[in-house]
């Protein structure tokens, strides 16, 4: 085991110093030129991923609370099976962003994002193995726990995003991915990281590492849109229309039902394994044990709203910005 890390590892990809989603997803500034292939090889593969491989960041074990049958395990398997499907879909959709990339910097950056999402898909799926799902039952387990929710929520989002990209609208596609997919899912992933920390620190670490990537994706995606609208302000209305159609779609998706089911199972598990969460604050001044399913959902929704608003303002797409 070594604690040697690349000395010049930028703070945003160092698992010891990277901001959480709530700060990083709102404020961090990164461009596709900065996050090119050498950046990814040196700082992601050779930096953050190396920290996970070489033991700089210890890899803890899931606790018995999620290894034995019960609602807590059920909640985790349901959540990670769904995340696997979401990340796999994101990977496939990214092929189209790479295809339509208008320049070398975007081609390189979105190629790295494609690999990141494929890594996430694998990490969420492989965690199911660690939870004791037999390898031969992995695909069937993902189907059983997540296929229905995937069809209800992920398929319509995918259809919408690919529809935008089918017209060759690269920036519309970036906007859909950045605001409507990652902008919504990243704050939910932050909640997940915090929720699982005591019951399955390994699951929380997977979320943490994925979240560090998602912050970079959000930051670069927003920089791409900001640059377009700085250079071509006439494109603004077109992008606002894409956003409007996307928000309409979100209104129709049964995401709240899905989250309520997920949090209700978690709540039952929380009651059953309360001793493990003793004294643990899920956010400042709030004990996880005192929260309800509805309260956690409301917190994630607020985080997601705030993240979207600050990113839209940075992209010059906030309401009230001059056209
Ligand atoms: Fe991801
Ligand atoms: Fe991402």
Protein model, in words:
The chain is mainly alpha-helical. A two-stranded antiparallel sheet has the order 1-2. It has helices at residues 21-27, 37-53, 64-67, 71-100, 104-130, 138-166, 170-196, 201-231, 236-252, 255-272, 293-314, and strands spanning 281-283, 286-287. The N and C termini lie far apart (55 Å). Helix content is 71%, strand content 2%. The longest helix has 31 residues, at 201-231. It has one domain (11-314): Ferritin, core subunit, four-helix bundle (Ferritin). It is built from eleven helices and two strands; from the N terminus they run ααααααααααββα. Bound molecules: fe (ii) ion (2 copies). One fe (ii) ion (FE2) binds next to α8.
Query: What structural class do helix, strand and pairing data support?
Result: mainly alpha
Total number of beta strands? 2
Mean pLDDT: 93
List all distinct small molecules, including ions and cofactors, that are bound in this structure: fe (ii) ion
């Amino acid at each position: 085991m070594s604690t040697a890390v690349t000395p010049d590892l930028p703070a945003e990809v160092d698992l010891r110093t990277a901001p959480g989603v709530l700060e990083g997803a709102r404020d961090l500034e990164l461009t596709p030129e900065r996050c090119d292939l050498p950046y990814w090889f040196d700082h992601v593969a050779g930096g953050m991923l190396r920290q996970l491989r070489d033991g700089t960041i210890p890899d803890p074990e899931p606790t018995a609370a999620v290894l034995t049958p019960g609602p807590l395990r059920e909640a985790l398997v349901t959540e990670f099976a769904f995340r696997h499907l979401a990340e796999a879909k994101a990977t496939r959709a990214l092929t189209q962003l790479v295809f339509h990339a208008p320049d070398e910097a975007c081609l390189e950056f979105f190629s790295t994002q494609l690999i990141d999402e494929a890594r996430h898909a694998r990490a969420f799926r492989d965690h199911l193995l660690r939870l004791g799902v037999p390898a031969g039952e992995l695909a069937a387990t993902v189907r059983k726990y997540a296929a229905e929710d995937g069809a209800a929520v992920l398929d319509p989002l995918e259809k919408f995003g690919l529809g935008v990209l089918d017209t060759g609208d690269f920036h519309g596609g970036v906007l859909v991915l950045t605001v409507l997919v990652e902008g919504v899912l990243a704050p939910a992933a932050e909640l997940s990281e915090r929720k699982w920390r005591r019951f399955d620190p390994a699951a929380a670490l997977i979320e943490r590492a994925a979240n560090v990537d998602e912050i970079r994706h959000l930051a670069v995606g927003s920089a791409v849109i900001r640059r377009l609208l700085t250079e071509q302000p006439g494109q603004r209305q077109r992008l606002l229309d894409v956003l409007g159609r996307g928000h309409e779609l979100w209104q129709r998706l049964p995401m709240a039902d899905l989250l309520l089911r997920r949090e209700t199972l978690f709540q039952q598990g929380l009651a059953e394994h309360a001793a493990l969460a003793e004294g643990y604050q899920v956010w400042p001044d709030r004990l996880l044990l005192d929260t309800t399913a509805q309260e956690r959902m409301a917190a994630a929704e607020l985080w997601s709203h705030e993240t979207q608003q600050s990113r839209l303002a940075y992209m010059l797409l906030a309401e009230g910005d001059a056209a």
